[in-house]
C-alpha cells in the first residue's frame, strides 16, 4: 500500500459547471402542498435558492477560497483520503485533527482553521470517507465504514504526518468519530473536544436517576433530537434508493441539505427568512461539493454503517464539550466520561463552525490549555513537510 501524500487542488471542469447550470434551468418543480416547513422545504423558498445557485453563486470564488488552504490526498486502508493540513506559526503548536459534520464537508471549517492556528494548533481536517474528495473506490469497499474504522484511519493519518501527540475535535458525525480515537489511539491522543452530543438522554430511564426536577426539564431538548423527518431510519436501511435522485438532480441534493439544516436550526415556521444563520454561499459551497464529486449517496455511510447516533462514552482521555446543553446533560455525561471542560455557549446553529468560528476556536483552546497542551512533537522517521 502506498503511503504517499500528494498535494491537491480543486479544479472543477467548466463543462461540469455548465452542466449544473443547465440542470438547474430545466428543473421540474413539484406542486406546492398546503402548509409550511412541517411538510418539507417550501417550493418557493427552494426555487429562490436554486435560482441564486444558477445565476449568482460564484463557484470559482469559493473554489479559490478552498484552494487557499493547503490540501492533500493519501490512501489509507484502501480508501482515498482528502484532507486540509494547515500548520500554525507557533513553534510548539499542538496538532489537532478536526472532523466535520453530516450533511456537510470540510468547507464547514473554512472560517475555523485560521483562528485555530492563531490559538497554537496545527490543523488536520480530513474529509470523511465517502464525502467530497474522499471518494469511495469503484466498486465500493464492502467493509462497513464504522466510526471505529474512521478513527483508525485518522490515527494512521496523524502518524503518517509525523505527529507524536495530538488532540481531536468533532461536530455531529465528527463528535461520533472523535471519541473512538481515544479507544484506538490512546497512546497518542491528548484529549477530545466536541460540540455537544454527549450526555443527551437516549430514553433509558436509568439515565435520569438522581436528577432534580429542574434537571429533568432538560429532557425537552433531547426530544428535538429524537423527532425529525425519519431520514435516519431510511438511510440506515435504503440509502442507495435516494442516491439516484441526489446524483441526477442538483435540486434534489439541495433540498435534502436545506431540510436537514432547517430541522436542526428550528426553521419550521420561520418562513420569512430562508437561511437565518447560514448564508447562501456557505450552504451552496457544500451543495456544490456534493454535486461535483457525486458523493450525496456515499455520504450516507454514517447511517447505513452504524456510525450515526450519539458519541460513545469513554474515560480513557479527558473530554471537553462546547454547546453541551443544560447542566443535566453534563451530570449524565460525567458518569462515564472524564469531563474536564463544559462551556455554557448556546448554539446559534447546529453548524457551529460556520456561524461562530471565533468562539468555537477559543473554546477548543481553553479546553486544551486546561490539559497543559502536553506531548507536542513529531514521531521519528515520519514526514511533516506537507
From TrEMBL:
A Pfam family of the record is: EHN
Name the domain of life: Bacteria
| Listed InterPro entries | AB_hydrolase_fold, Epox_hydrolase-like, Epoxide_hydro_N, Epoxide_hydrolase
Q: Which GO terms describe its molecular function?
A: hydrolase activity
Per UniProt, which keywords does this protein have? Aromatic hydrocarbons catabolism, Hydrolase
Ranges for domain Epoxide hydrolase N-terminal:
5-109
Record family assignment: Belongs to the peptidase S33 family.
Question: Could you tell me what this protein is called?
Answer: Epoxide hydrolase
Biological classification of the source: Bacteria, Bacillati, Actinomycetota, Actinomycetes, Pseudonocardiales
Amino acid at each position: 500500500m502506498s503511503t504517499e501524500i500528494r498535494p491537491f487542488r480543486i479544479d472543477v471542469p467548466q463543462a461540469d459547471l455548465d452542466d449544473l447550470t443547465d440542470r438547474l434551468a430545466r428543473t421540474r418543480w413539484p406542486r406546492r402542498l398546503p402548509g409550511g416547513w412541517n411538510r418539507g422545504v417550501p417550493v418557493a423558498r427552494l426555487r429562490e435558492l436554486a435560482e441564486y445557485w444558477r445565476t449568482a453563486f460564484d463557484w470559482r470564488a469559493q473554489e479559490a477560497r478552498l484552494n487557499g488552504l493547503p490540501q492533500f490526498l493519501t490512501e489509507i486502508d484502501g480508501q482515498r483520503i482528502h484532507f486540509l493540513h494547515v500548520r500554525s506559526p507557533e513553534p510548539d503548536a499542538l496538532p489537532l485533527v478536526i472532523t466535520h459534520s453530516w450533511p456537510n464537508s470540510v468547507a464547514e471549517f473554512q472560517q475555523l482553521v485560521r483562528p485555530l492556528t492563531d490559538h497554537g494548533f496545527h490543523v488536520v481536517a480530513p474529509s470523511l470517507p465517502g464525502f467530497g474528495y474522499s471518494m469511495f473506490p469503484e466498486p465500493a469497499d464492502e467493509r462497513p465504514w464504522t466510526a471505529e474504522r474512521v478513527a483508525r484511519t485518522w490515527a494512521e493519518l496523524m502518524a503518517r504526518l509525523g505527529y507524536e501527540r495530538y488532540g481531536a475535535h468533532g461536530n455531529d458525525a465528527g463528535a461520533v468519530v472523535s471519541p473512538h480515537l481515544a479507544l484506538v489511539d490512546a497512546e497518542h491522543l491528548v484529549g477530545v473536544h466536541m460540540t455537544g452530543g454527549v450526555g443527551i438522554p437516549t430514553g433509558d430511564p436509568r439515565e435520569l436517576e438522581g436528577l432534580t426536577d429542574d434537571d429533568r426539564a432538560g429532557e425537552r431538548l433531547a426530544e428535538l433530537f429524537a423527532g425529525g423527518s425519519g431520514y435516519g431510519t431510511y438511510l440506515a436501511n435504503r440509502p442507495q434508493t435516494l442516491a439516484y435522485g441526489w446524483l441526477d438532480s442538483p435540486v434534489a441534493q439541495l433540498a435534502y441539505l436545506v431540510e436537514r439544516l432547517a430541522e436542526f436550526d428550528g426553521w419550521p415556521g420561520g418562513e420569512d427568512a430562508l437561511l437565518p444563520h447560514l448564508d447562501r454561499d456557505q450552504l451552496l459551497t457544500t451543495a456544490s461539493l456534493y454535486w461535483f464529486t457525486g458523493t450525496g449517496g456515499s455520504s450516507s455511510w454514517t447511517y447505513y454503517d452504524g456510525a450515526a447516533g450519539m458519541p460513545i462514552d469513554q474515560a480513557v482521555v479527558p473530554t471537553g464539550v462546547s454547546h453541551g446543553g443544560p447542566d443535566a446533560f453534563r451530570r449524565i455525561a460525567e458518569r462515564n466520561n472524564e469531563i474536564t471542560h463544559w462551556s455554557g455557549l448556546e448554539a446559534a446553529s447546529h453548524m457551529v463552525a460556520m456561524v461562530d468560528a471565533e468562539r468555537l476556536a477559543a473554546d477548543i483552546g481553553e479546553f486544551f490549555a486546561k490539559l497543559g497542551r502536553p506531548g507536542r512533537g513529531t514521531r521519528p522517521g515520519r514526514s511533516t513537510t506537507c
